[in-house]
Amino acid sequence: MVRYLITRLGQALVVVVLVTVIAFLILHLLPGGAARATLGKEATLEQLAAFNHDMGYDRPWIQQYGMYVQRLLQGDLGYSYQLNQSVVEAISQRLPKTMVLSLLSTVLAIVLAIPLGVIQAVRRNRWPDYAITSLSLLAYATPIFFMGLMLIILFSQVWPILPPEAPQGFTVAEVLADPAGLVLPTITLAIVTIAVYSRYVRSAMVDNLNENYVRTARSKGLSERRVVLRHTLRNGLFPVIALLGMYLPALFSGALVVESLFNFPGMGQLFWQAALKRDFPILLGVTVIISIATVVGALVADLLYAAVDPRVRLQRSAS
Amino acid sequence: MRSRFPRRALRGAVAVASAVALGAGLVACGGGSGSSKDGGSQGKDTATVAFRTPNWILPISAPGFTQGENAIFGQALYRSLYQYKLDGSAQYNIDPQRSMAEPPVVSDGGKTLTITLKDNTWSDGKPVTTRDIQFWYDLVRANKDKWASYRAGGLPDNIAQWSVKDDKTFSITTTKVFNTAWFVDNQLNKITPMPQHAWDKDSATATVSNLASTPDGAKKVFDFLTAAAKDPKTYDSNELWKVTSGPWKLAKYVPNGEVTLAAQPTYSGVDKPKLAKIVLRPFTGDDAEFNVLRAGDIDYGYVPAANLSQEGYLKSKGYTVSPWYGWSVTYLQLNFNNPKTGVLFKQPYLRQSLQMLIDQPTISKVIWSGTAAPTCGPVPAKPGTNGADAAGCVYSFDPGKAKELLESHGWKVTPDGQTTCQTPGAGPNQCGDGIAAGTPLNLTVTSQTGFAATTKMFAEIKSQMAKLGIKLTIKEVPDSVAVTPACKPTDATCSWDMSFFGSQGSWYYPAFASGERLFATGAPVNLGSYSNPEADKLIEATQFSGDESALKAYNDFLAKDLPVLWMPNPVFQVSAYRSGLQGVEPQDPMNFMYFQDWSWK
Q1: Do the Cβ atoms of B559 and B377 come closer than 8 Å?
Q2: Which residues of A touch B479 (CB under 8 A)?
Q3: Sheet bearing B112-116, strands edge to edge
Q4: DSSP string, A158-194
Q5: Do the Cβ atoms of B469 and B414 come closer than 8 Å?
Q6: Comparing C-alpha atoms, which of B97, B482, B377, B405 is closest to residue A82?
Q7: Shortest Cα–Cα distance, B198 to chain A (Å)
Q8: Could you read off the pLDDT of B534-568 as tens digits, one per residue?
Q9: How far apart are CA A127 and CA B10, in angstroms?
Q10: How large is the angle between the packed helices A238-253 and A280-308, nearest 10 degrees?
């Protein structure tokens, strides 16, 4: 297991390095450059040149990349002129808030999706299954911005019981101190996830309910409740575990549309604004963070899989 | 097959789902109503404003930090020497109420301006004196390469002598005679008194001295102040920024978040704040801002162009919807240095033809829903009087005449096909110097994404051009300025033909609308590299001639010569504010906001 872990960590490191190289190249090949985007149309040629010199943009890209990696290893992700603050500071201000929103929506989605998936599986091809499937498909097919907008109009304007924007607090504590503001963005973000997860749970449960081990358990006289919740559900959760691992990057990057719609100053918004303004240091910093989260997420998914399914460990030991 | 899943288990699952939903509902109820804590008009002493978070506090602008929100924020805390208004009521457009000094007395044949300060104090009670103006001058003179407003030949290069006579009076002698209106409006507008008694040091722990009076010392002081300005998270705690001269003080500052301004009790100006607090709330985008506006959670916001149809709804919710006209012009930049199409743009008849294919009145009325008005030349129409007709424009929409012009200059016009040069040459009835036979009229416009009206506008122009066989390709990018730089024909970046960055107006002027930064040869914002000796002469006259008709002469020439194609000029924004909020109007055409004038009915 340790060897497996080391191998996977090595692979992860290579992936992160490759991502930074590719992101660095793509960003620096974009026409226009950062100087004009940052300093605006009024900037003189001298000011543009000074900016490029200060940021190192007047050097060959390989040299720039070397300098970037050197700074990266010291925990310095650079400085954003657009925000007038360091990239680390900008990310550290937003990341916890995005994680709060993502975690809340994920927990809500899981807590609702698992029972819904189970209900669909055990009542498959009957009205509860049809009803939940229809609602899931509707939720899945509805664009998230439209869903959010409908919720805002419904609960902030027609029936004004919830604020139309997320909490504007600077710290996580301030954000959590305004729970009403979190309701609509959390629900909007959770709805699509519920639809996806419940379909996966349903599918896995249906497959498992037809397995021989379920028939054996039933024939041994176990109660149906025990068969479903103790035996089948455990196997039925495997796809959810894999999905959760892959969800980790989203936890870090945030949901762009929801953050934008509800004025939530999180990571998704940070990245979007940086893309519009060609804020290269921010773009690179966020890309690095998300690429790390992606490989860590895949790793966590694998490890969780191994933890809940002994067969996975056995196969790996054998190999 | 009938499931054997017991109903009790099913009920359990449903109960879990219901509990979560109920929990969410309880959280909602616990939060109370949809009103935000600071929003709305609760207490009638606060106004909440949709406003991007300012990120520069030092009253000397720095490259990269010249956005409008920084200017408004800066003015709230640090008053400029002169404030301006464009209603034609005062000499040199100086606003006598808000300005910190009396209008300058001109002598020495126009070379010397003597300025007397009014009685004003800093927030700590110390008087504002000429020492504070001198402090500003010392800092910019020693650090002009780091000052965003510096232009070679402008302040401080154009000052031959700076003399302080006493605590209240100083004089400026210029290197040559300038047009006083230009100098007062476009040079003296940069001066902001700064508290020498609190800032003249090179570290937080140092004692205040006369350090900035030497160039080396001024560099150290400037570096210290700049470093503090680059630390936004300390804006509301740093002692430096607590000494202000403006009507507001900074009560709370959240980097990239809300900013709260509180009325400055010791403010010495006559325009004292009527409200206790102004909350500046940033939004992640137009949609988020408009949702909050619709819900009534802010007192002053804006209506995105895509939502103008909801004006009636906002009015029914108690908002006043009002266009904010800017002291601006909008144009389509032509790249005269493009190695392929530059030769086309250099032909005046061709520029005229293209201009005649832009139906400014109709585009303004239909596509911009009346929130734009034709631009006819480089000097804007008087703010607030923007009509939707192009009566004053030299070239009105006239496709027939455009076709005639092309044909009379050797082009074979093929409607809905491809128009090509048939008669090359530099003669009067030929295509023009450098245009080969068979050259097609194919042009590309690099425009802005994210503005529905802009997209529709170019679709309309493309359609008009196609009728004369001119193929217009529209390329939308997030930042059209960044990808259309001023260039030499040999540069790889010089492949752009036409550039548009005017969805909220291309250029906003200071009080005097001269074109030395836009249309003079080599000017910093002359992205298309337009160059005309006659234009240069007229632009120079606006700066150096005492003749009041210089500005008109300059406008008339460039309106006709078309250094760019004039386009419908959109309003800065369509504002929406609670009808009970007074003092918002008239909205300043130079894009300042004077929160101190605001009050609740």
Answers
A1: yes
A2: 32, 36-37, 276-278
A3: B105-107, B112-116, B169-174, B159-164
A4: IS--S-SS----SSHHHHHT-HHHHHHHHHHHHHHHH
A5: yes
A6: B482
A7: 24
A8: 999 999 999 998 777 899 999 999 999 999 999 99
A9: 14
A10: 160
Partner-chain contact A180 B493, CB within 8 Å: no
Comparing CA positions, the residue from B394, B392, B371 lying closest to residue B381 is: B392
To the nearest whole angstrom, how far is the Cα of A81 from the nearest Cα of chain B?
7
- CA-nearest residue to A152 within chain B is B291
B477: chain A residues, CB-CB within 8 Å: 32
- The separation between the first and the last C-alpha atoms of chain B, rounded to the nearest angstrom, is 72
Residue of A nearest to B36 (CA): A163
Tens digit of each residue's pLDDT (9 = 90 or more) over A107-143: 999 999 999 988 988 888 889 889 999 998 998 888 8
Q: Find which of B5, B488, B529 to mutate to test the A interface (most A CBs within 10 Å of its CB).
A: B5
Helix/strand/coil (H, E, C) string of B234-302?
Answer: HCCCCHHHHCCCCCEEEEEECCCCCEEEEECCCCCCCCCCCCCEEEEECCCCHHHHHHHHHCCCCCEEE
The overall pTM is greater than 0.90? no
CB contact under 8 A, B291 and A31: no
Interchain CB contact of A174 with B (< 8 Å): no
Instruction: Give percent helix, percent strand, percent coil of chain B, each to the nearest 5.
Output: 30, 20, 50
Q: Any idea what DSSP says for residue B550?
A: H
Residues of chain A with pLDDT under 70: 1, 253-254, 308-319
Cβ contact B131:B196 at 8 Å: yes
What percent of chain A clears pLDDT 90, i.e. is strictly above it?
18
A273 interaction partners in chain B (CB closer than 8 Å)? 284
pLDDT digits (tens, 9 = 90+) for B255-297: 889 999 999 999 999 999 999 999 999 998 888 899 999 999 9
Answer whether B482 sits within 8 Å of A32, measured CB to CB: yes
**Per-residue pLDDT at A318:** 53
Cα dist from B61 to B65, B75, B94, B343, whole Å: 7, 12, 21, 38
Q: Which residue has the tokens 């604020």?
A: A163
Contact B59, B141 (CB under 8 A): no
Burial class (CB in 10 A: 0-12, 13-18, 19+), A49: middle
Q: How many residues does chain A have?
A: 319
Contact B302, B573 (CB under 8 A): yes
HEC assignment per residue over B472-508: EEEEEECCCCCCCCCCCCCCHHHCCCEEECCCCCCEE
Write out the two tokens for B402. 């455009």
Closest CA to B426 of B343, B370, B506, B355: B343
- Residue contact B10–A123, C-beta within 8 A: yes
User: What is the DSSP-derived secondary structure letter of residue A30?
Assistant: S
Nearest CA-CA partner of B231 in A54, A51, A85 = A85
End-to-end alpha carbon distance in chain A: 11
